[in-house]
Design a protein that fits this description.
Strand order of the largest sheet: 1-3-2
Family: Belongs to the proteasome subunit S3 family.
Distance between the termini: 71 Å
Number of helices: 22
Strand content: under 5%
Radius of gyration: 31 Å
GO biological process, one term: regulation of protein catabolic process
Pfam families: PCI, Rpn3_C, TPR_PSMD3_N
InterPro entries: CSN3 (IPR050756), PCI_dom (IPR000717), PSMD3_C (IPR013586), TPR_PSMD3_N (IPR057985), WH_DNA-bd_sf (IPR036390)
Shape: elongated
Keywords: Proteasome
Length: about 500
Amino acid sequence: MKKPSPADPEPMQVTTTTTTTTTPTPTTNLKEIQSLIETGAYTKEVRRISRAVRLTIVLRRQLTNGLISGFFSRVLPANSEAYKRLSSYVSKDSGSDEMDIDAAPTTQPAAKHVLPEMEIYCYFLVLLFLIDQKNYDLAKVCASDCIARLKNLNKRTVDVLASRIYFYYSLVHELTNSLAEIRGNLLALHRMATLRHDELGQETLLNLLLRNYLHYNLYDQAEKLRSKAPRFEAHSNQQFCRYLFYLGKIRTIQLEYTDAKESLLQAARKAPSTARGFRIQCNKWAVIVRLLLGEIPERTVFMQKGMKTALTPYFELTNAVRVGDLELFRTVADKFASTFASDGTRNLIVRLRHNVIRTGLRNISIAYSRISLADVATKLRLDSDSPAADAESIVAKAIRDGAIDATIDHANGWMVSKETGDVYSTNEPQAAFNSRIVFCLNMHNEAVKALRFPPNSHKEKESAEKRRERQQQEQELAKHMAEEDDDEF
């Protein structure tokens, strides 16, 4: 073996360093939130308050009594009324849950007044904690106190926090089956938000009121409120999705199926992928509306990831409508009656009986050039005292509506189908292509309108370091928004 000479270069030693990313502790997150709220309040930057809310949504699973009590001691003067009131909602625990005393000031804050943004945020923190602990009665008291405090505040930096308070105020009453009690308060808050030009609060409260009315099946009142409420460009994608969903439900009950289908499909498309429960509800209603329109949803609608089990009853219902089997339709409706009742679609499914008969009649007219009305009643499985007479009236209505191309021979009791023509010689393909083109153009226009650009981006050229920092901030923001969407829906 050759020995290395002094002239030979020494072998290079490769050392690998592993970088470990430490997850910030709840105490660190709360300190960052405190800094964001104070900076946002003094500089009147709403985006900092919004970021503090997003960080709180990430933090909410780690909240404890000791952690919240330590945060109050850090941001609220001990002799303030807000501190005494908020401390009554949480019991201070001894242990490692409290905030780091070494890092915190040894004395209470010397501020004479509490920042309104910080006080409302403390209410928001307590409300989240009480709801997660399923202490709904105390959460209702806390939310009511916060609503009373918000009525005396008119600051745009508080609007983001106020909209969240409104949401959880309604949620905690819904969880305790007492939504009707707060309807008057929600209407008063909506009027107040309108007078103060609080657009985020307006769209949040409008959705809460629509949900309140629809919870008790008050569709006429919901439509009157919706039609008279001021409309403006949506500030929150979550609230806009909710509005489209409620609008689709109202349009469905009012028999305006085309508008309902558009609203429901748009709500399902705009909802974030993490909002699985919301998207399932949108798809359930959209399937029913499409069946009422005489359309058969594609199989891929029922095979979406994470939705197959929830949409199984609607898949079987769609199959019964597709084959036009009235007996199978009754079996499916009875089998999943409890599911349809809990989804609020049972009354709509009763309307589908006519569509099932029409589909079966269309299949019969295609298969037979001439068939007796008694056989039509047998194949449709009509259970009535005079099935032939019922079949005659059903066939006559289908011919009048243009569902089938046939005639009735009343003398012999026959249905005579006309020869099927070439569909490509009609305007149907053109109408189908036109609807698809309009859909794609509308989606493109919405995407263009949703584009956002930083100010003076065409004048300034950012360096590589600034670009990396910006990309890192965008990734963190996207992560927080995804977790926030998951919590919201």
